[in-house]
Amino acid sequence: MNNCIILAGGQGKRMKTTKPKVLLEVLGEPMLEWVIKACESAGIENICVVKGYEGEQVEAYLSQRKGSADIKTVLQSERLGTGHAVMMAADYLKERNGGNTLILCGDAPFIDKETIEGSLALHTKEGNAVTVVTSEISQPHGYGRIIRNENGISGIVEEKDCTDEQRKINEINSGCYWFDTASLIDVLSELKPNNAQNEYYLTDCISLLLSKGKRADAYISHNKNVSLGANDRRGLLMLNDIARMNIIDKWLDFGIEFTCLDGVSIGTQVEIGAGTVIESGVRLSGKTKIGEGCHIMTGCMLNNTVVGNNTVLNFVQSNDAVVEDNVKIGPWVQLRPDTVIKSGVKIGDFVEIKNSVIGECTAVAHLTYVGDSDVGANVNFGCGCVTVNFDGEKKFRTMIGDNSFIGCNTNLVAPVKVGRSAYTAAGTTVTKDVPDGALAIDRNKQANIAGYAEKKLKARNEKIAAQKKA
After folding, report:
1. Which CATH number fits the domain that encloses residue 438?
2. Which residue stretches of the chain have pLDDT < 50?
3. Which of 198, 216, 230, 386 could form a disulfide with 235 if both were Cys (CB 3.0 to 4.6 A apart)?
4. Nearest-CA neighbor of 34 among 79, 78, 67?
5. Of 220, 247, 266, which closes a domain?
């Protein structure tokens, strides 16, 4: 059985946040989530998270996440080093004694499936008691250095304990390890805080295992970012920039066109079809899926939204919605959850649609709210229409048949049904069902009061005249 322990107890004081460090986000997902997903993708589903600062927030996050991993937590009430954190999981390890245990840092989000699997393959092939995942970087300051010998490695020296010669080494400890679980349990109780920080270093397990005649080696990851973490907001920004560009590079390789990268952010679960063009200021997140040949224009923010083929979106904000093929929407449109926009629809500026189905080739021109409605095909909405769906206590649905015409400034007070090929006159408030083919009109007879405006506007008009003379 292979297990994983994720160290997630850090506070991150320089972040100046009340959140645990591991819950700070990279591309909209907590760093901890990146690490857990890497484990799941590598088939490791027995995970113990060592929580610490504001641990109840970590617990709350884990309790609501969806995934295949079986995740337990333990508390590190005092932050006394990485070795001390793993000690807190000793009982968890003893219950799963056998196989190997992966140790990861919850604030190093770029660990990946290939590194986990590659290092495990080396670990098992050589029969190592411990295998350290390393990377080679040009600026190793701040990282523990790998000390190699002819039989593998002889240890890891932390930056503050390095000699001048050791500081020249550019192979660094990523903070990721594979341990033979039984061997790890054997040496955890022997760790001592004999260092400049008076902490229990997990790296000291290597020398303890070597002293018992066991083998230690290192696996150099091809992922140059595997060891990267963040100690302050600048570091977190750097992680976001790296993640953002890695994803954009992937989509460039797939033939997606980006007109400008300013403000463009694409989540790890997003899918984009061939021939799509993405402009500046676009954010695609969650399980958003964009079809082929689309044009996602400036200012679009799509979350968990499915977009069909050959659709154009301009300044559209959408959450949990579906937009089908050959649709044109925007600018300044909001699609709220459970909205379905059928093929061929045109939606103009300043329109909000919520929990509604808009039928094929329907036009919603501008300044309109459609909520809790089922709208047929080839319907035309004039300017300023509203489906009045809420009476202060309950919400009701509106139904509009195919080929209907909803005149400007129509209020449809739900529950109400407008039949097929029906018509509502401009300015009408519809409170009763409209039969197929009928006209709904609700206007009081116009009355003109002579001289009223002249008296009402006299002072205003005199002021305007005086300003013109001046």
Report:
1. 2.160.10.10
2. none
3. 230
4. 67
5. 220
Q: What is the DSSP string of 332-398?
A: SEEE-TTEEE-TT-EE-SSEEEES-EE-TT-EE-SSEEEESEEE-TT-EE-TT-EEE-B-SS-B--E
The residue out of 220, 238, 265 marking a domain boundary is 220
Please answer whether residues 399 and 357 qualify as being in contact, where contact means their C-beta atoms are separated by less than 8 angstroms: no
Handedness of CA 346, 352, 358, 364 (dihedral sign): negative
Tokens of 394: 């309950």
Q: Catalytic amino acids?
A: 366
Give CA–CA dist 427/136, Å, rounded.
71
Residue 159 pLDDT: 85
In a domain, 315, yes or no: no
List the one residue out of 431, 373, 383, 437 whose CA is nearest residue 407. 383
Measure the CA–CA gap between 221 and 172, rounded to whole angstroms.
11
Are 187 and 237 in contact by the 8 Å Cβ rule? The answer is: no
Helix, strand, or coil here: 200? coil
Give the 3-state secondary structure of 127-169.
CCCEEEEEEECCCCCCCCEEEEECCEEEEEECHHHCCCCHHHC
pLDDT of residue 110: 97
pLDDT in tens, 374-397: 999 999 999 999 999 998 889 999
Q: Are the C-beta atoms of residues 74 and 51 closer than 8 Å to each other?
A: yes
Query: CA–CA distance from 6 to each of 51, 123, 288, 392, 437 (Å)?
Result: 9, 19, 29, 48, 66
Q: For residue 91, what are the domain limits?
A: 3-220
Residue 195 confidence (pLDDT): 77
Q: Which of 46, 217, 242, 62 is nearest to 128 (CA)?
A: 217
User: What tokens appear for 305 in the block?
Assistant: 């939204």
The confidence score (pLDDT) of residue 270 equals 97
Task: Name the 3-class secondary structure at 466.
Answer: helix
